[in-house]
Amino acid sequence: MTDLTTMYLGLRLRTPLIASASPLTGRIDTLIELVEAGASAVVLPSLFEEEVEAEAWRLHHLLDTHTDSFAEASGFFPDFDFGDSGVHGHVKLLGAAKDAVHVPVIASVNGVTPGGWTRYAETLADAGADAIELNLYAVAADAHRSGVQVEEDYLKVIELVRSRVDVPLAVKLSPFFSATAHFARRAATAGADAVVLFNRFYQPDIDLSTREVRPKIELSQPAELRLPLRWLAIIRAQLPGVGLAATTGVHSGFDAAKAILAGADAVMMASVLLRHGPRYLARIESELEAWLIQQDFQTVGQARGSVSRPGTADPTAYERANYLRTLASYPRPTR
User: What CA dihedral angle connects 117, 123, 126 and 129, to 10 degrees?
Assistant: First the structure.
């Protein structure tokens, strides 16, 4: 038997396979199914600061509606249930998840303001989260703000959250930084215990009949794994002691094996589980274990990073030379 255990965020995991944030981790019944199928940890759906602010605005609106009504008219007082909304809903889900499963439960926070990031991260840490994942998801749409300013703001958030929470801290990055390796290193210096590569941006579409901008969600495809593979391989040796997790495009145990070879300590997945169901995770684990045995790896650690940039026979394959060879290798059309 190959030893599949791994360390991520200081947590000893039975395997590198983690169920990332999705509707499946937002319900206790499917959360239990994921763990029974082999998830070694779970990431709960993100707590969005906008969601909390909308809840606060709604409460203010309801309380203010009948400000000038008679106090005796108790029927005017609005009925508002905090149970499953905003922060309260996430704390409730976190508590239920901790009671229901025996694996680490990671809470995800997606903020807008420094105060929002720190406040909600601290709330979830205090509520029992085994770790916090900061989901850095924002579009740099302001033409007056430089990339340096955007990065500095993110680093301040990481520092603030690190100063307020004692649990391990992961940072989920966008693939759109101009110097990804440099920012990952600075994120670690600011207090991140691990870096997750990458956040998957969902792009809007335009409805030609109504000329409205509409959200459009498409599940990932295996080919999307190539982007995190490149950066895992480049970053691995440059961030010793920092956890690395791969996400986006992991659809099989063989995909998980590629991520580990590139340098991942953990491999996260959502789309494949949404497509095939929580139980599919057992198949992914079986494929990963079978591949490791076939390759004579006795532990995951032996495979990890063995095809990272310094570990491969051709380090330039992860850089510009790969671009040149890829273009040259495409077959010429035949007449």
Answer: -70
